[in-house]
Amino acid sequence: MFDFDHLPDRRNTASLKWDVPENELPLWVADMDFQAAPCIREAFMKRIDHGVFGYNIIPDSWYEAYQNWWQRRHGFFMEREWLLFVTGVVPGLSSIIRKLTTPNENVLIQTPVYNIFFNSIRNNGVRILENPLIYDEETCRYEIGFEDLEKKLADPQTTVMILCNPHNPVGKIWGRDTLARIAELCEKHHVIVISDEIHCDITAPSKEYVPFLSVSETARKVGISLIAPTKCFNLAGLQTAAICVPDPVLHHKVWRSINTDEIAEAGSFALIAVEAAFGQGEPWLEELRVYLEDNKTFVRNFLEKELPMISLVPSEATYLLWLDCRKLPHPAKGTLADALEAFLRKEAKVYLTSGSEYGESGDEFLRLNIATSRERLAEGMRRLKRGIDQFIG
Description:
The longest helix has 25 residues, at 282-306.
């Protein structure tokens, strides 16, 4: 029903992703090349025809859109009073860190992880504390090292943990028991969990994510979830998200934080996008999930046949693939990942992201964005092979 094969030209549109040299193919930053769902574009046009774009309140329909979507899709009902509008997941994350920490305290992250977490921590004068995920080199799968996690949560200087659920860049969906165990440990050691769940609706068709706040009363006591339609419906430029905070004391602190930072006022299209996406966009999303899963299969088959020295980490969620490049020759200086990114951009004209951006444990990996047409992805993989063949020499 929906066409994901024919894409608009994004060059010369002030696109972060596509503001690259003319002959370069960008498969890096996490936005999709697909047009937004027709129902969203139609809602925008209706609002444009009205012609007035004044200040907004948050209407009942905005709350209901989030409530109905999470109950229907994820089996979790969020009370209206738990929800707060915010202009984005990252602005919300940074604001909460400022409110809940004091300088030189620790914020725990599980590396390799979304690189902007590092910025949000450092820019607010607190320290990064890493709980590296455990990587099984035989299966290429990641798990949490709970012994190390508890040791670091027990440090009195550790006040906040950022959870990535599902996990970017490794594509892992954390199970209910795992999330409940994290909640128990954080309550035990007086640590607040900020759960970034922005990728939650882009799962494999056979997989569903588990909202952190849904797993237990303990999780709802210590947890804050950041959610949005922006990844799954390709709306990142609209600056719209929500924060879900069940605990009333914690909720008040977050409310104070985002209002102090002036990131709690919604633009007209930020509200419309949520209501249209969650209210009418489900058929489009279902077809998108199938298309992305087929893209993942295409990449896996290509690597197995053409680049067997690169291993694909199994992906349950997101449209980002984590490529294990450890078998490739390493440079004399610097990291393998940085060397590969630079070489591939220069010699093969294909732009992937160096795994080093996601922490030291990503130094031998690349991140690949597959949210594009099959034709464009195939061209990207051909360029990747050409570049790797030259890199190996």
